[in-house]
Amino acid sequence: MSKIIEVKGLRKSYGRNEVLSGLDLSYDQGQVIGLLGPNGCGKTSLIKILTGLIHDYEGTVLIDGQAPGVYTKSITAYLPERTYLAEWMKAKDAIDYFNDFFADFDKVKATEMLNRFRLDPNQKIKTMSKGMQEKLQLLIVMSRASKLYCLDEPLGGVDPATRSAILDVIMNNYADKATVLISTHLINDVERIFDSVLMIGNGQVRLDASIDEIANSGKSVEDIFKEVFSFGW
Amino acid sequence: MVGKLIKNELKAGIHSIAPIYIVTAAILGLLAIAFAFEILWLAIISIIGVALVGIAILAVTLISVINNFNKSMFRDQGYLTFTLPVTSGQLLFAKALCSFLWILLSYLVLIGIFAGVYGYAASQIDDEQVVMVRIFLSTIMEIPDAGTIIGIIAFFVSYFFLQIIFLVSEIYFSVSLSNVRPFQKMGMGSTIVIFLTTFAITTVISTLLKAFIPLTLKIELSGMSLVFQTMEQTSGLAFGIGDIIFTLVTTVIFFVMSSWFMKHKINLR
Fold it and tell me: Helix/strand/coil (H, E, C) string of B82-98?
């Protein structure tokens, strides 16, 4: 069985600024991975490469055995840290849009979640609050039965109660045997859901360990994070 | 997938372009009322309004084509567009086809409006213009071979379509290039500068090729023929076509380069 994520010698620069300096990663299917690191450490760049948004990198990137492309996009659900739905769309248009393009999208599930979140299917996205837009995007992304979910800062800018609700939606809705990659810097709220943790800093892997290994060390993920990044990154 | 891309592209276009057509329909409605009840002042205002809105349709359509392409590919929406399970070629084709259709529609409406306004104004002033149109039509009918008429129409329609496709490719190239790193910080300003520069250069080259390449379409009552002379050397109704190959090649180059920029040179902000 091929790895769901396989990265070798990954390098990415923006001009002279190298944000990823030879990353090596490998993950099997069926786990929740916490992608942790300080702001600007390359988390978003890594996710953009995995989702096929960035092409000008060096190294090898394989998703389910294939380089990012049409196939990998069809099995990868991506939640960016910004609103990527068109302003003219209503909530129901956004659901129809995903239903058109993703064979693994469950329209019934999305509509049920829309009702559960008390979002009006006829409300235009541009008239929704930021929180409503984030909920809509999350429910649409989690209505896909994908092999890989890449969630970039899904908890950013929301209150603790909403964070808990968002985590519940993620944990209750991702497909069986899927891998979920969650980028965040709010470690306290999410460490309970991780199966493994990937910390990157200064463009390199600083820690790649299972949650059991971290637990055996007698420390929390947050303690380890502070240790890894306390002297700069 | 291409069908779905086209369907959603048209839906997006309707939301930005439809309002100007609604305004046009409303003004045409006023014009009809003015004619029906012979209200002169309303007719004059409506005719001026229709003429202005006719130009506005073209302007709004071009701005929408530029804006929709830029927003859906290189701004926040690009995060969704580029993660759809489609190739960049499919994306570009669907967008270009819809842009072509919107621009074509705007030209047709513009031509229709001005033909209507001109016809009405001419008939109100004197009958001479109407007579000229009748002579023109009867001249066309005098051409013995129906195939010749169809050939002439097909040529000019194809040429018109090519110019629209070329315009779309030029817009896409300009928007794509303006999102490449050195130009990215300048925003829409760089799009305008790049577009005007490429427009000026290609227009000069096209005009020169049209005038000096000895390849001309000669149109006579007996039929249409290709002559290896410049337009100036050819007597009668002549149309230089030395620029067509240049336009075709440049169109392909602009589309290929836009696709290349998307794949290799553009990082979404």
Answer: CCCCCCHHHHHHHHHHH
